[in-house]
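Z., the sequence and structure:
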Amino acid sequence: GAGVSPEVVPAVEFASSVDDEIIAEFKKYYRKYKEVDQKIEAILALEGVEAKEVVDVLLPLLSAQEGEIVEAASRVLGQFKTRGPIDHVFAKLEKERKSERRAGILDAVMRGGYVDLGEALLDCLEDRDWNVRRLALRAVAAGGKAENAALCLPLCSDKEVAVRCAALDGLSLMGSDLVRSPAMKALQDPAW
């Protein structure tokens, strides 16, 4: 038959138990580390672990004071290959209200090239925080779907220069002809 071979079941159970052990070790020891390098090493030990719990343990670190810790957490959150943790990233984005964490999640979405444009990501294109809008644009562009170019267009006239730049860059990265008109207008912009 077309069932799962008996050798595969123990391998999957073993991988799952190893992942569970890595997450448990992280939870147990992370707060005990004092040095930033030790904390980063602990975060990076979670790379390759395809579990929703990784999202749960790393999300609070996206608002850490140390940029290197935020960077490492975002890097790990952007490396998922399976639906479970990716969907969990988007679910957390939808519920998160802190701008710095939303920014970190969007950075992870961009790094991962996650192409889902759920309501949470679309809401970020209209966020009060200009950095969240900028990173949402970068995440949309990183997804690489040309049909999403129209989502970037309104932000080409955002009040924040960095957002306008990200919108133009995003349209350009997606190879969209929609970039032409706003790019021509941008040439007249005194901020450039």
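The longest helix spans residues 8-29. The chain has eleven helices and no strands.

Let me know what you think.
H.
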